[in-house]
Amino acid sequence: MKFTVPQKVLFACDVLNGVSEQLLALIKKVALTSHAEVEVLLINETVSQLKELGVDATKLNHIDDGLEGIDYYYKNIKSNSVIEGIANEIKVAKADLLIMAPQQHGFWGSMVHRSKTRIMASGLNIPLFSIPV
Known about the structure:
CATH architecture: 3-Layer(aba) Sandwich
Largest sheet: 5 strands, parallel
Helix content: 40-55%
C-alpha cells in the first residue's frame, strides 16, 4: 500500500464519553498540515438526539472549539453495528485516514470488552491513528 497525504479524515468518536483537548489538537494539526477535511462521525445519535438525551452541550461545543479553524462537519450514521457503520462510511466518504480514540478499561472490563479500534485495525486498507483518551 502506498501512503498519500490525507485529504479526507474520518474521526469516529464517542461524544458521550467526551473528547479530550489533546486529541482535538492532534486532529486539528493533521488537518492543517495536510489541508484535509474532517468528518466527525456519530453512530446512531445525531447532534439533536444527543441534546435530547441530556448530553451536556459543552461536550459538543468542546469539539467545535477544538476544531475551530479547519474544515469539518458532523455526520450521523444509523447502524446496528458501530464497526460496520465506520467501515461503510470509510467507503462512502472515500476517507484517507481513520482516527479513533479507544476507551481505557480496568482489568476486568478489558477481559470482556471487545475493542472496536482493534477490530477496525485488522481489516482496514487506510491508515488508522489510534489515540488513547
